[in-house]
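Entry 12.
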Amino acid sequence: MADETLHGLELRSLATPEGELKLSLEEVTIAAPGADEIVVRVEAAPINPSDLGLLLGPADLSTLTVGGSGDRPTLTVQIPPQRLRMLQARLGQSLPVGNEGAGTVVQAGANQQALLGKRVGMLGGAMYATYRKIAVRDVIVLPDDASAADGASMFVNPLTALAMVETMRREGHKAIVHTAAASNLGQMLVRICQVEDVPLVNIVRSDEQAALLRDAGAHYVVDSSGSDFAAQLTDAVAETGATIAFDAVGGGKLANAILHAIEAAANRNAAAYSRYGSSQFKQVYIYGGLDVGPTLLDRGFGFSWSVSGFLLTPFLQKVGAETVQAMRNRVRDELKTTFASHYTDTIGLAEALDPEVIDAYQRKATGRKYLIDPSR
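Predicted 3D structure (tokens):
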């Protein structure tokens, strides 16, 4: 296959100036790999919340219409006018989707012939496709006993979980609060913190999620749907000394509740009253948008606090190549233990454009993670 020109399909998302979002499977030709490139037959690619921003954007899914054929479907969705200005930089561009994936190397450049036939994990976009040409620096060779499904999610969630612990240490905190904690990423963070003896307060939204984490060994689990949520969260923060939080929800009052809990815990041992609040610095990083509404803060937690965004790529750029390589090596070595991912269902490329399937995965429900296998 080394000299063969490959043809495949690629899932694309196109936002038009007229306010339509068009999803389609486009035919692509894969050029021969360069000296340090490979071509991978994609066999698994997860649908992460970060993928949905590009795939569906701020489109109104209630306006979805279906076209094309069974194996080559097309979807058209209206973008509300007030949201269209958010997309000015991408209007008119047919963009490939899928941040990460895994598969088998079917072509290799002159310097990478040893990789032929190897199974690799990949990071770099355009993974919802039958083939992906990619630089070798952006792949990790999977262990011999690892499947493509094992390696499909070895970058975004594992590296983000490790980045949270590293950020905690670099900023001088000693414990973490994490929301949507029963997610695949949340379960990885539980396992990391157990190994590294980092106190972790897990916020979930149901008894079922709480039981899942407790069965996995999590000690501090708080259900945000409970009537005593604020009191339980404050107790957990006071016991652990947590002063940094990573919030996957974003919208609503959850970040506000965390800041209040940290402030209340700090005031339990205050020597004197201060009208400016405690001197304890409180940091909330928003790293997801499960709730895309406004982040609501009532400012009743003093003046020593910060709420800001957290993204993996800037973190990796900041910490340097040596730290990043060590993190990647750890993910590879613990791929089927600490960093194991679990999926609700596996779908093909055409199925990813089925309205009923879209309705399921765009809900971003905890414990409902989908995997695309373009070879289906």
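Annotation: The mean pLDDT is 95. Residues 43 and 103 are 5 Å apart (CA to CA).
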